[in-house]
Amino acid sequence: MQFLGRLLDTVSSVSTLFTNPYRVRDVPLSDYGGGGKFLLKEEGRMVLYKNTQYQSWDCLLMCPETPNATLRMFQVASEEDAMNWFPQYALKLRPFYETLPLKTETAQPIVDCIRNHQDWSSAHIAVETGLRECLKHNYVQSQINARDASGQTPLHLACERGELACVRQLLEESQARTDIRDRLGETPMHCAAKQDTPAIIQVMCSRLCSGVNELNNNGETPLHVACRLGRVESVKALLGGGAKCDVVGGTGYAIHSAMKYSEKSCVEEILTADPGQLQAEDSLYGGTPLHWSKTAEMCLLLLERGCAVNYLSKTGESALHILTRRGRFEAAMVLLTHGANANLKGQDGNTALHLAMKMDHMELIKALIVFGADVEIHNDLGETPGLIAARTSKGPNRKILLDMLCSVGVQRCLPPSPGSPPSFSNKAKPAGIALTEPSFPEGFVLSFPMRTNLMYGLARKEITEMYAFTACVWLRAKGSGIGTPFSYSVPGQPNELVLLQGVHNPAELLINDKVAQLPLSLPQDEWQHICVSWTLRDGVWKAYQGGKMKGRGEGLAAWHPIKPGGVLILGQEQDTLGGHFDASQALVGELSQFNLWDRVLKPAEVAALADCSSSALGNIAPWTDHDVDVFGGATKESLDPCHAGHRSNPSGPKQ
């Protein structure tokens, strides 16, 4: 039984030992002083034994500081493995055990590097393990500029790992070269640019290290790399260290890389360092940064700095063409609200509307028509947008699209589909139809005769940022509820500012999706004067009807400024920027004298507007016939609510 127990113990020991044969272990030196152990090789302090008891080959590191114990570096069952690994261990471990007293926890990361990265020198291993003291060893010094299989030196590795202390030591004490390129053509500066470790870049730039403006095999400088990865702190450090913004890469300048990946902060840093990059043309298509934009936010950033919104690339395309072709609705809306010409011709003579028709993108089509896209303009093949729509539009969009085109004056090629709504003749046509708008010297109203998602008005004034506002309007509702007299949307927030009332719901004021219910009572078929005011300070709001305050409150979107650059629609609620209207929320009736101020009007001013003793115009969105357009069958009609008939009550005139 004792023999059987010893046998089981031996089997268990062998099984445990070979579970991880490369695990570094502390073992008694006396284990290798008896029989069954044969010394095979010895190099420096490294010794290789054949262990006949376990049929293994054991590599030991003799440690003078612990004469009764040793470190077993590996215990393998194959002589071939032992003979392969022993020379590498003996060579690469020597600088470490000659510099430091190695313990199990220190030695394990070193031997892991030896096994997992056979192409690494001892200098690479010292950087990876953070054992900087070993970089001073003479043998390691001889390998300071050694390259691994990927062509990287220890300095590449230190920069890539973000090891500032190692970088300093390699540069200052070891004189490591900074001009060596790896197999990707990257210098250590490229590796540093991939990390948000500006201190490393600053150290390298302070020593005038080469590589700050060098291109890798992909045509990228370190600044290109940092912009692509969104490493804004690295961008700052590179610009401060002499990186040039005007080095053209494989596809363009660094700003084009930042725009491609929508790295806003990187773009801002480049434009601050070199404002001329705002119109820099890429090397492939001759496109400006605006041509490379993908989001509304990035478009707005460039437009606010004054970039040319209608600039044509070498391929003859504007940024609007590109955004339309890629279906980026919100970004396209920002361009349109900042003066983009919807009728510029690009490749093959196509306008943005031609492209939107080919894609059957309803929201873009509506937006382009709203902003004056000519529905009758011909491309180089003689095609109009309407002809493309008739050929390519499929499914439920087809009927809606053809009816909408008919409503803005396009000749139908075929009779209308059964059940199509009747066509409405606009007295005010969009700016691309090339008809003259009538003037309304006696005032005008917008008429929305039926509940539909096609009829709406557009206030063409650009909306600036507002910290307070007052919006006033005359309304005559034809159905239950007032629908949506006005809605203002911005990129990313369709409900930036909305006044609406459902069929069986109270009137509501929405700001940044926050809601306040308004105590208004609006009878049908009677002209009513409504005003709402708000200030971001504590979110205080007031609601007026007929010149009298009906309610007030606070806490509505407090400290949230109304954002600029959006779309102000009359008669419809926007679910996306400039579109996606819902017929159930549409205004049915008439609307007039909508004015918007960027301040809170005094009660006396509101009362004067309501009793028609004042005709003050809003400084943000004034009620003038050339600042308001109608589409989709809504009409402008000559009428002034203040002179429509005898006023029978204080709430306003009644016709």
Short key terms for the protein model shown above:
seven-stranded antiparallel beta sheet, 655 residues, elongated, Jelly Rolls, disordered N terminus, Serine Threonine Protein Phosphatase 5, Tetratricopeptide repeat
- Structural class by SSE content: alpha+beta
Number-wise, the strands total 19
Distance between the termini: 116 Å
Q: Number of DSSP helices?
A: 21
Question: Remind me, CATH topology of the domain at 444-643?
Answer: Jelly Rolls
Summarize the amount of helix as a percent range: 25-40%
Instruction: State the major sheet.
Output: 7 strands, antiparallel
The level-1 CATH class of the domain at 444-643: Mainly Beta
Shape: elongated
Per CATH, the architecture of the domain at 444-643 is Sandwich
Strand order of the largest sheet: 15-14-13-8-17-6-19
Strand content: 15-25%
Unreliable parts: 1-17, 411-438, 646-655
- Rounded Rg: 38 Å
Question: What does this protein look like?
Answer:
The chain has 655 residues and is an alpha+beta fold. Among the domains are: 18-116, no CATH class; 295-413, Ankyrin repeat-containing domain (Serine Threonine Protein Phosphatase 5, Tetratricopeptide repeat, Alpha Horseshoe); 444-643, Sandwich (Jelly Rolls), CATH 2.60.120.200. The protein is built from 21 helices and 19 strands. The chain has helices at residues 2-17, 79-99, 104-116, 122-129, 138-141, 154-161, 164-172, 188-193, 198-206, 222-229, 232-240, 254-260, 264-273, 296-304, 319-325, 329-337, 352-359, 362-370, 385-392, 395-407, 603-610; strands at residues 25-28, 37-43, 46-51, 56-62, 69-76, 444-448, 456-459, 468-477, 483-490, 493-501, 507-511, 514-518, 528-535, 540-545, 548-553, 567-570, 589-597, 628-631, 635-638. Strands 15-14-13-8-17-6-19 form a 7-stranded antiparallel beta sheet. Strands 12-11-10-9-16-7-18 form a 7-stranded antiparallel beta sheet, with no helix packed on it. A hairpin with a 2-residue loop joins strand 2 (37-43) and strand 3 (46-51). The radius of gyration is 38 Å and the shape is elongated. The model is unreliable at 1-17, 411-438 and 646-655 (pLDDT under 50).
